[in-house]
Amino acid sequence: MKSLNQRYAGLLVLAVILALLPVVLTNPFYIDVAIRIALNAVVVIALNLLMGYTGQISLGHAGFYGMGAYASAALTTHMNWPPILALVVGAAATGVLAFVVARPILKLKGHTLAMATLGLGIIISIAINNESQWTGGPDGIGVPAFTLFDFTIEGEKAWYAVSAALLLLMTWFALNLIDSPVGRALQAIHGSEVASRVAGVDTAKFKARVFVLSAVVASIAGSISAHYIGFITPGMAGFFHSIELVTMVVVGGMASVFGSIIGAALLTVLPQLLQTFEGWEVVVFGVILMVTMIFMPKGLVPSIAQRLRSRKPKEV
Q: Which residues cross the membrane (predicted)?
């Protein structure tokens, strides 16, 4: 119960911070960075449910992100679909693909699972590059504004409200999922698949479900990001973006919802600071990942929390 109260206290703190940020950040550039952090955090929280809580590696999640973004771009641009319908169809198509590949891929373990998910991401990226009549190919494609009925989302403040609401909703959902029987089953699978099966957990089913969930969330975030940015290129579905997402999970903290948000914040701001060192971003991300795994293998938030708990005086 104490842990549950702490988690929802964290949700309240997050809500307060998100409410105060537009007041503190008066520069449109900082609001833009905050929006990107929120959208990245949504994807990273879902990916952490797969990696941190269930113990399944994915190096291809940028492909799902790109599927959502390009579904919204292509359907609204070439077929004049309403943005909300394009978003839903893109998420549904992503979910179907994830469901089809989930069981065979998730039978693998360790580096073979990582290579399989990497291959899936590469296939999606190649398809986006090659289908130039729909996607614009390597040159990219413009994305219309997001309209719902007669209302158009425009301006940094409006987009910030959307991204902040989406982040709060995803955080609340993840916290509830973790404390549910489903969440306990996922954590049991991470601990030991054999023991989970002996205890009656259908490990294949639960792994497939969380894989599909994380893919659909990535697709939705990709669609929202595409409408916000207004122009997308195949790089958002590429290998480096997948590595960025995994690094955010690892640095922030495996099996930590709030660690996902911290990881997303740190590694979304970092490229802005490295703009003068163009071409070295990959090296820096690799160094950060390596240092984190050596000195804080559980990630920033769990490691700091563990050290704080160890410093508390023991009750006599």
A: 36-55, 62-78, 84-106, 158-178, 210-233, 245-270, 282-301
